[in-house]
Design goal:
Strand order of the largest sheet: 1-2-5-3-4
Biased composition (Basic residues): 121-135
Number of domains: 1
Distance between the termini: 83 Å
Shape: elongated
Region (Disordered): 112-135
CATH architecture: 2-Layer Sandwich
Protein name: Small ribosomal subunit protein uS9
GO cellular component, one term: cytosolic small ribosomal subunit
Number of strands: 5
Radius of gyration: 19 Å
Largest sheet: 5 strands, mixed
Helix content: 25-40%
Strand content: 15-25%
Structural class: alpha+beta
Keywords: Ribonucleoprotein, Ribosomal protein
Number of helices: 4
């Protein structure tokens, strides 16, 4: 009875986007989607963000087959949705390697490396210089 919890099947995936990090757990179930102990619709608010996060499930036609538990930190809602999307895609690969054929061409397994460029000294922003006056 000590190892009763080990019989539960779950697949974990880590996703990052901008300054957001999402830890995703997929369990076979009814399709419940929970983000930071709140229902996904109450957390992400916008339908576009929810569609973005659920895209790997729609591509692999597994929406409603897994319960999704997500712990996400940092960034805004758009970055968090992108991090959740990558985490779900990586967890789906652990569930079945046959999903790679659908996820890879759609770019779901690629980490978007773009992030905010740092501000440089002597400039107003990362690249914006002060206005030049000839006279």
């Amino acid at each position: 009875m000590a190892n009763a919890k080990s019989s539960i099947v779950e697949y974990r995936g880590l996703g990052r986007r901008k300054s957001s990090t999402a830890r995703v757990i997929l369990r076979p179930g009814s399709g419940k989607f929970t983000i930071n102990n709140r229902e996904a619709k109450n957390y992400l608010l916008s339908d576009l963000h929810i569609q973005d996060a659920e895209q790997p499930l729609v591509l692999t036609e597994t929406k409603g087959q897994f319960d999704i538990l997500v712990n996400v930190r940092g960034g805004g809602l758009k970055g968090q949705a992108g991090a959740i999307r990558l985490g779900i895609a990586r967890a789906l690969l652990l569930a079945s390697d046959t999903y790679r054929a659908k996820l890879k061409p759609a770019g779901m397994l690629t980490r978007d490396a773009r992030s905010v460029e740092r501000k440089k000294p002597g400039l107003n922003k990362a690249r914006r210089a002060r206005q030049f006056s000839k006279r």
